Amino acid sequence: MATFKSLAKTEKNKNHKRIFDIIARHEAECAETTNDGYGEITLDASELSEIRDTLYDEVRTNIATDGTVQSVQEMREALRLKTRENIDVFIRERYAQKAMQAQKGITQDGYYNPTSGIGTFIDPGMSTQSFIPVSITPTEATSYYASGGLPAKIINKKAGCLSLDGVRFQCAAFTPDDIQTLEEYADKCGFTEAYAQGITQALTFGGTVVYPVLDGDNPVRTQAGIQELLEKVGEKNFIKYWVTADRWNCVFTPETNITAQDYLYARSLFIPLGGCRVSTQRMAMIRPVKLPFWGAIKQMGWSTSDFEGWIRDYEGYEIMKMSLPIMAQQMSLMYHSLPADGLITENGPDYAKLFFKENERQMREWSMLHPKAINAIGEIKILERTYTGFQQLISESRLALCASSSIPESILFAQKSTGLASDNEDDVTLKQSEAIRILFNNVAPSFKNCIELLVYSCFGKNSEQAKHATEVTIKPDTGVILSDKDKAALGVQFTQIAGQLSAIGIPITTAIDIAHTCVPSVELDEKTMQELSGGEDDKIDGDLWHMLDAGRNDMQGVKNDAGV
Description:
Helix 2 (14-24) runs antiparallel to helix 3 and helix 12 (307-329) packs antiparallel against helix 15. The protein is flat, with a radius of gyration of 33 Å. Residues 33-37, 82-91, 125-129, 419-423, 536-540 and 555-564 have low confidence and may be disordered. The protein is built from 22 helices and 9 strands. The strands form 4 sheets. The chain has a 3-stranded antiparallel sheet. A two-stranded antiparallel ribbon has the order 1-9. Strands 4-5 form a two-stranded antiparallel sheet. The protein has helices at residues 4-10, 14-24, 45-64, 72-79, 84-103, 138-146, 149-160, 176-189, 191-205, 226-230, 293-298, 307-329, 340-347, 349-364, 390-405, 409-412, 425-443, 448-459, 484-503, 508-518, 526-533, 542-561, and strands at residues 169-170, 208-214, 239-246, 268-271, 276-279, 284-286, 332-337, 379-384, 473-474. By secondary structure, it is mainly α. The longest helix is centred in the middle third of the chain and has 23 residues, at 307-329. Among the domains are: 72-106 and 113-123, no CATH class; 332-384, no CATH class; 484-561, no CATH class. A hairpin with a 4-residue loop joins strand 4 and strand 5 (276-279).
């Protein structure tokens, strides 16, 4: 493995070279090194920030090669309402341009209606342009999330739905006791927390790595693969804690050959905050979105921040919301009506401007506590203003934010559905579960290596469970919290299915398994399953058997009616 000093000499990319130069400054200070001279590297805060900013500069440069890219500040300025002057200038220039084109004839490459103006130069739709992509810096992403509010709520809703009940595992070769033991160990050693934090940071920054620190780890051992690691650790309980590092604290050059086995991956990553190289065989590289080839290489193998998909809609909603206090203050305006014609005729326009300006200043100072005397000329009037339709605009802005963030409005804004939407709760639940499942399918496979080490550490390297370590996966969660009423309804469905299957001669345990396939949200503990396996006798739980038997009786009634 090459040293950073040698990499800096051969690297042609200026940003990568800059990073390698920073790391190479401390390479000779390593106390414990590998055969190639690499060991632990200590970087100060300014160097960590410089590496982070350089990584972002590389991504922004890559994106900008295909056109313009906006910063968050540029996006905000673009969303603010333009002045009338700027709008008029734009309209005049646009009209002159289109009028000139019209003199030469309309290009015959589409449909247009000269009567209505659709498709011609007077059609507002002809001025439609695509949005310029927004690029969010690591600092801005941190600020959005740390400030709380809707941005943090969206991220937490998505990430939290994958671990509402912690991390749950599944493996055909494991007994229920094995699964329970593994889940308890995952909580104890910190994997459950690292799993949740990793997904949260991956959504915030566009990628994260999660890896365990093991007994006896050093700068040499962190670069070892799983098999080499297993030779150097104890039999079990060798995981000390877990590390979570976002993409901006990871340095690696991904393999961009799409036919390569390690496409967009690397053998190891340098973690600046930890000052060490870590093998990718012991970690989860979390990417919330699987970008296509050109997008992936521009992001240096990572994904994009979840913010970038909906931050424009969020800022638009915020601008509209912040205008409400101003609108409330201006709903009722008092003004002094004066005949301007005579004033201008007698004293000239300059004097009139000064007069009206002074009059406006005095009007602003008026209140019930500070009344003002006025000239008898003119009269005081009240202008009542209404904002009809503005509420609908805000509602549309909210819906746009919900659509782009994939969070239903009733969930994001904690608002009970009303009207026709109130009868659509199942559809809302389905949409939420669908979005969460898509995220889960992108994220869960990344933890394969971590789960393998977790199984070895929990049960032992040479245990029977260790033989199936690569078969253990994370069980998907629906991302929906069921009410007691919903749970009861599912329980009734479960027992009816199981009872009816048992009535036609299927063994109870088999009937339970089939019912669980139809209603997966209902699970029976190991004790109940053991009682069921004993058959229909006194060992079985009485209440459970009555519910099952009710389903059996229902099925028997169907048989009798059919003459069976």
